[in-house]
Specification:
alpha/beta, 298 residues, ten-stranded mixed beta sheet
């Protein structure tokens, strides 16, 4: 890296998909809440050059049609255009690589564009656990949905066999309860934090291999936590920070969410939790059978 590269404490990556008004609101209202010592990049997925240029102009961002091109270092907001839909992991990886190549960024914030920051100095609060414990490389704040429920943290892994049970018996319950999310306001080491708003130490994130690009959507944070754990690193929940999440607004309506969730879950359990191919096959069948039972009993 060249010696003249600008040193910036925080790099913010926002992956967006056909959300013109939402990303403008985020840039104008949420980004200023995070302070001045940052540089941000918007990753505009599945967009033609013209629409990306218009979005960049509306946000006051420098339009970057080629992520490998040199960019003005005095600029603090960029927009990358991608004609294909990269998904969550690949999109965030492209944004992280762009920032780390052009700036010396100590921390990377991965943020949805459908959030509202409710805590002042939220980035400083998220940094605090990492400064106190050098094994902590990822932190997340309270992420509260519109229904008031906590969406993070997830304290422990869920076994594949429990998932199979939930799939088969889910029709007996109104809503599957995620027993890994336990309400508490005490900071602590956890299994994973939600990627809707998550801070990572840049060097650790890059060294861990970033997000798994074989996953288009869902389970990216679980997989990242596994990649970090293999290096002796940890995730931490920091409830001193809080954001409101308009859940679902950042997910494209045309995506087959059920299919993507099943595919990413099978990849996670097979390649990161060590379950056999046979067990993962049974899980696939249980999901299909569970949907049929739910339909039959509806």
């Amino acid at each position: 890296m060249a010696e003249h590269v600008l040193i910036v404490k925080y790099g913010v990556v926002i992956v967006t998909y056909h959300s013109f008004e939402r990303i403008i609101r985020y840039v104008r209202e949420e980004l200023p809440k995070m302070g001045d010592d940052l540089v941000a990049v918007i990753v505009d997925n599945d967009a033609d050059v013209g629409s990306s240029r218009r979005l960049a102009d509306a946000c006051g961002a420098v339009f970057v049609p080629d992520a490998e091109a040199e960019v003005p270092r005095e600029t603090r907001l960029f927009l990358l255009n991608f004609k294909e839909n990269l998904g969550y992991g690949r999109g965030n990886n492209r944004g992280a690589s762009f920032l780390s190549r052009n700036f010396r960024v100590r921390y990377l914030l991965f943020s949805n564009d459908d959030i509202e920051v409710e805590s002042p100095d939220i980035l400083a609060e998220l940094c605090r656990p990492m400064l106190q414990d050098r094994q902590i490389k990822v932190t997340g704040p309270q992420i509260v949905g519109l229904d008031g429920a906590q969406q993070s943290p997830h304290w422990k892994p869920i076994s594949l066999y429990r998932e199979i049970g939930w799939s088969l018996l889910g029709f007996l319950r109104k809503k599957r309860k995620n027993t890994s999310v336990v309400p508490t306001l005490h900071a602590g080491i956890c299994y994973w934090v939600s990627g809707a708003f998550m801070l990572a130490e840049t060097d650790a994130f890059l060294d861990a291999g970033q997000f798994d690009e074989k996953v288009f959507l869902y389970n990216e944070e679980k997989i990242l936590s596994e990649r970090l754990a293999r290096r002796g690193w940890k995730c931490c929940w920091q409830p001193a920070g809080k954001v409101l999440h308009y859940e679902g607004a950042s997910t494209q309506p045309s995506v087959d969410k059920r299919r993507l969730l099943l595919a990413s879950s099978c990849h996670y359990y097979r390649h990161y939790r060590g379950y056999s191919a046979a067990a993962v096959w049974i899980y696939r069948i249980s999901c299909r059978l569970g949907r049929w039972l739910k339909w039959r009993n509806s």
